[in-house]
Specification:
The strands form three sheets. Strands 1, 2, 3 and 4 form a four-stranded mixed β-sheet that branches. Strands 5, 6, 7 and 8 form a four-stranded mixed β-sheet that branches. By secondary structure, this protein is of the alpha/beta class. It folds into three domains: 57 residues, Histidine-containing Protein, Chain: A (2-Layer Sandwich); 66 residues, 2-Layer Sandwich (Histidine-containing Protein, Chain: A), CATH 3.30.1340.30; 111 residues, 60s Ribosomal Protein L30, Chain: A.
Length: 300
């Protein structure tokens, strides 16, 4: 008598089971597709990131290299005219993607030297280098010889620039006549007589300007020199105390103390003579310098 109701209930359970199974399969498929889509996007982002770094390299910007990321393997393909450039591309990729296994399939092809193409590549490298802050460069190319003139804010940069042009296939010799032109900081902080306390005023803005420069050029350091005038007591100690006060402020603003060199100056600050107002000698002056290790490595 109640059999139809039982059968109906069974059918509903079967339909519910089938629907639940179908829904579960749909979720699995959608999740799997989502993961696949995410992986594809992530791999595409890595490819773009590495390709951008390769294109930004002055030596490699002239050549077309292909980057392909599949899982944990990064394949690098293309043609380059020298083993030096092949190794350079490999170095950039390893630094950009240290977590991936590199499969370097770049082929080194021995091509006859086309001086017009070499000249175009030299011009392209100059264009790229001039986009870097702190570098202003010009180059003349004549039958395989490159003559460089211009300025750089660091000694070490001069050596690297020479290496870049020497690595261009077809370049036989590089003459680098560039000079170092340090960054000039016209910022000074002045003190009251016989005081090492930084007075209120615009010093915060000055400290921020110095901080911005150091953040812009992480390879450079800061030299601070304190001064005092001849009417003040314990002149050398006072000059050093003024430097230390400023040094503490720089550190409180996030500047690493290891990048700061502090000195007590003797005599008058640069461009100040004894005929000028005494308060002009109660100051701390700033100078951007290279790290001692960088200067030693530059061989200059």
């Amino acid at each position: 008598m109640f059999q139809p109701s039982v059968n109906c209930a069974k059918k509903q359970k079967v339909r519910a089971g089938v629907w639940g199974f179908s829904l579960g399969m749909m979720v699995v498929i959608l999740v799997g597709w989502g993961i696949y889509h995410y992986v594809q996007i992530n791999q595409g982002d890595r490819e773009k990131q590495v390709s951008k770094l390769l294109d930004a390299s002055p030596e490699l910007a002239f050549y077309r290299l292909n980057v392909d990321v599949r899982g944990k393997i990064l394949s690098l393909t293309g043609k380059l005219p020298s083993a030096y450039l092949r190794d350079r591309a490999e170095t950039i990729v390893r630094l950009a993607a240290p977590d991936l296994v590199l499969d370097n399939q770049i082929i080194v092809v021995d091509q006859p030297v086309n001086m017009m193409q070499v000249a175009a590549e030299v011009e392209q490298v100059v264009k790229i280098l001039n986009q870097i802050d702190g570098i202003s460069i010009s180059a003349e190319f004549d039958r395989g010889n490159v003559s460089l003139t211009g300025t750089s804010i660091q000694h070490t940069t001069l050596n690297k620039i020479t290496e870049i042009f020497a690595g261009i296939p077809g370049v036989r010799q590089v003459s680098n006549q560039m000079i170092v032109q340090p960054i000039s900081i016209g910022i000074r902080i002045y003190f009251r007589q016989n005081s090492a306390q930084v007075p209120p005023g615009d010093w915060e803005e000055k400290i921020e300007q110095i901080k911005d420069i150091l953040e812009k050029y992480p390879g450079l350091h800061l030299k601070i020199v304190g001064y005092s005038d001849r009417t003040e007591f314990s002149r050398e100690n006072l000059a050093l105390q003024r430097v230390q006060s400023v040094e503490n402020m720089l550190e409180s603003r996030g500047i690493d103390r290891r990048r700061v060199q502090a000195f007590a100056g003797t005599g008058s600050p640069p461009d100040i003579d004894l005929n000028q107002e005494r308060w002009l000698r109660r100051c701390v002056v700033f100078e951007i310098i290279e790290a001692a290790a960088d200067l030693a490595n530059s061989g200059k």
